[in-house]
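Q: I have 219 residues here and want to know how they pack in 3D. Can you give me a structure?
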Amino acid sequence: MLTTPLCVMAFGPSKAIGVLLPLLCAGDALSLFHYWRKWRVENLWYLLPGMVIGVALGSQLFNRFSARELNLIVGIMAVAFVIYQLIKEWLFRNSTTFTPNHKSGLLCGLATGITSTFAHGAGPVVNAYLIPQKLSKEVYTGTCALVFTWVNWIKMPFFINSGLITQQTLGYSLAYLGLIPVGVWVGVWLNRRIPERVFVKLVYLLTFLTGIQLIFEFG
């Protein structure tokens, strides 16, 4: 979630969303390779119809907002993401095991498609659908990788058609593509040297501060 608000500050909202999508697809490929078949595929089938509708709807709405309004949306989603991450264990502490179905999947998929289109920020929505299922850590991560791969590739033709992905944004994406495996290596290196709780809190803090900056646009 930190990537999107930082990119928005660097490129502006419309360009940032287009620059990021090919990079996210590249990152998804690495995740899928690592977690191949370690997913609960029925979750994808439940979410997929709503995701397609949500992406189509979000793509139509995106260009109706000004740059300031888009900054505000991304900033609010970033702050909301941090708040959700901090309270999600409390929210689900007494929940019973949830069995997914087509009805709940349609609604969650719709929200996933819309939030992913506006800020590549569908993480909290997907988390809210998967966490109550009490999946193992590996299956949970693999299912997330599968869902995000699909929603990002679904967005691709819509982004191209609406002008969010252009030759210019593709040029930026290609320029930064080589940093994806570097980022993976740095992540592994940091993971071995910094306690996970410290690293996660640092990411949350930076995401929160970036979101606040986008909302209020301080000097």
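Q: Anything worth noting?
A: The chain has a mean pLDDT of 87. The two ends are 23 Å apart (CA to CA).
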